Amino acid sequence: MSLIYLNETQQQIQTLAREFAQRELASLAAERDRESRFDRSMVAQMAKLGFFGMLTPEAYDGLALDAQSYLLALEEIAVVDASAAVLLSVHNSLPTQMILNFGTETQRTRFLGPMARGDTIGAFALSETEAGSDAASLRCQAVRDGDDWILTGTKAWVSHGNEAGVILCMARTDTADARRGTKGISTFILTPDLPGFQLGKKESKLGLRASPTLQIILDDCRVPGDRLLGDEGKGLIYALGSLDHGRLGIAAQAIGIARGALEAAMRYAVDRKQFDRPITEFQAIQFKLADMATRITASRTLLHAAAAAKERGEKITRFSSMAKLFASETAMWVTTQAIQILGGYGYVTDYPVERFFRDAKVTEIYEGTSEVQRMVIAREVLAAAAAADGSLPD
Ligand SMILES: Cc1cc2nc3c(=O)[nH]c(=O)nc-3n(C[C@H](O)[C@H](O)[C@H](O)COP(=O)(O)OP(=O)(O)OC[C@H]3O[C@@H](n4cnc5c(N)ncnc54)[C@H](O)[C@@H]3O)c2cc1C
Prior knowledge:
Butyryl-Coa Dehydrogenase, subunit A, domain 1; Butyryl-CoA Dehydrogenase, subunit A, domain 2; alpha+beta; binds flavin-adenine dinucleotide; about 15% strand
């Protein structure tokens, strides 16, 4: 039973992703996490199902799914392996969408097919060590040299940066004034074969340990002129706009993590006896389970309402930030409760809830921290209310 209405295709995608995740991903998720191992064979399996081209048009070998089907699949993957989910979320929502929306036909034909087939993984390089929430302050520079561009700087926190064959990189092309807000920054389609492209430090992380996160060093990296995406100077606008979409994916990931933790906690609580009875008979445990389930359902309902609005072509900046904020804080809260329900067993690696707890935290940080989401939501609701004489209809 689902509170959100799902059409037949959406139900089929949900079932396909659930069965695949349970059958192929679940058994090795803990091992991949323990060994911080990115699993290429898992990529090949997900590619066979078309998961790297979920939102890509059929003309470029994609499945051309609607946003809700895509989010349902991401949730199912995240229920067992949040690292696999972030790979699919970043790949499908940021580099793929940006090339699709702003690329030339030549760029689309060259890059989108291999990406949709899962032969080439896409990554997104906006952040720098000194430019996180304040992305507009980035320092990586791109200077023209004949028909080419020379890129210099270090991008930070690039998810699966060492596995990617296509990296969308934001760099400053107007170097005259380093504080021009969203202007003066352009997006380039990088490939690791470019001269001067190097991998930097690999981060050692609290969670998402099977998803490598790296710095990318651009040491006078020579980039052909035809790798500029869209218009010069509009790269940050493209990137921030694409995050509206990306944040839906992170919300789905957070919901999956929370659901994984709730399901694990329920399985445990039914079996665990204290004071001669299953702990599910204690109201304290029942109320935790009730609150966990309620928050997860509320998160999913908000997310899918936002996704449906996107499908209708509406601007969803406010709602995608709300969905990401609510789902990520739900994931953190639910995973904390799950550990409490398992008591000491929640704190050790024999059970998956400590992994869910570690994985949940980053959903409150990447693609905009919770504070940044609140800033976006406040800006949007104030503007909407000002335009409607103070009322705020959704
Ligand atoms: C595992 C992982 C994967 C990532 N993957 C990618 C990726 O693939 N591509 C990419 O480009 N980036 C990626 N990131 C980077 C991520 O998007 C940034 O970490 C995030 O945007 C926050 O930036 P920061 O870490 O520099 O924190 P900061 O911006 O320095 O923020 C520090 C704290 O200050 C708060 N803060 C900052 N400004 C304000 C303000 N104006 N008002 C109130 N509070 C504020 C923040 O909310 C936060 O609590 C990843 C990060 C992680 C951890």
